[in-house]
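Collaborator request, handled under Task 6.
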Amino acid sequence: MPADLNRVTLVGRLTRDPELRHTAGGQAVCSIRLAVSSRGRDDSGNWSDRANYFDVTVFGRTAETASNYLAKGRRIGVDGRLSWREWEAQDGGKRQSVEVVANDIFFLDSRGEGGEGGGYSSQGASQGGWSSPAPVSDLPVDTSDLQPIAPADDDDIPF
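Structure tokens returned to the collaborator:
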């Protein structure tokens, strides 16, 4: 019998600035609200966009980075898992919700396109790799040290 799978990948825009808090043990927790559009036909047959909203929770160093560099309107990618929780509200009623617990967050727009911030992936952080927020570029890599390549002659081709 195959193992269960709990994985979600979303791309959307933040609907508000991230909210950072810390647990009693000192671990950083960041709450993000993400709007993801889906396109479909309405009752009259016309195409329309519909927004879906997801609560995303980020932990640890990734949470601190998200809080520092993300802002309302930023386009991000989230890779994580779904988590269901239930609690008792102050009025005594039972409440429940499903949220996304992020493993990785990817900054998908440049600094000037929808908010403040630079690029960061928690995969890079585990290897000590921060994407510097200072230079703004549409390219996903640092190209400051690249030199143009001289055009090749037919004699330079090895076959």
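The cover message to the collaborator said: "Confidence is low (pLDDT under 50) at residues 115-137. The radius of gyration is 21 Å. Please let us know whether this matches your experimental observations."
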